[in-house]
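*** Residues and shapes ***
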Amino acid sequence: MKSGFGEHVTATRDGHVAVVTIDRPPTNFVSVELISDLADALEAADVSNDVRAMVLQAEGKAFCAGADLARSDDRVAAGMDGVSALYKQAARLFAVEKPIVAAVQGAAVGAGLGLAVACDFRIATPEARFSANFVKLGFHPGFALTHTLPRLIGAQKAHLMFMTARRIKAEDALAWGLVDQIVAPDELRAAALTLAREIAENAPLAVLATRKTSRDGLLAAVRAQMAHEHEQQTILRATADFAEGVRAVNERRPGVFVGR
């Protein structure tokens, strides 16, 4: 049985695994509404006694290309009130108590990287790329990545990603611990489901308790970090470099930054 959550999120069941799918073609850009709908879907699975683990997957060529800052009709692109609303919904993802396996194809960029890192595990294809591209936009990292990414791969590797905005290949992501497994594109969803089933075979109360211990303090830290990131983003959003960064990324060229 398939359930719909808003326009771009659906959920199905496979035994004790809930499979949640994002479908906002072509690149699954985040929006306040998308993350709210995604949180609704994950929360519905979280409160179900029949669900013990989840898979988060996406249609299209990219897992999630982040925020579309060029769209004037998007709340996140329109201003920092929209970013604040996005982070409020994003925090709900970290409040989910059951484990989530992400199936990552193509790009996981910016907020899309944040979404992937919010999950417990990541299965990726060889074509997957991971990027914290914020400084290319003249912007500060967000989606709590300044907390969650160092926690996952270590402070130095996270610092390298933040400072360079480079795209990390799947094989490097695997070596760094950002990815748990690489599989062929036609095996991606099956591999993510297999891992989720493996988790779901275990005693559910023990899984919940162990996950809670492993992620102790994460939700509070994420909320605090998002507040700090929002402050820094508010400052940088008013700069000429931010305007140039958005133009440059949309025009697929290096930014010409002036430091103001």
User: Anything to note?
Assistant: The radius of gyration is 18 Å. The chain has a mean pLDDT of 96. The first strand starts at residue 3 and ends at 5.
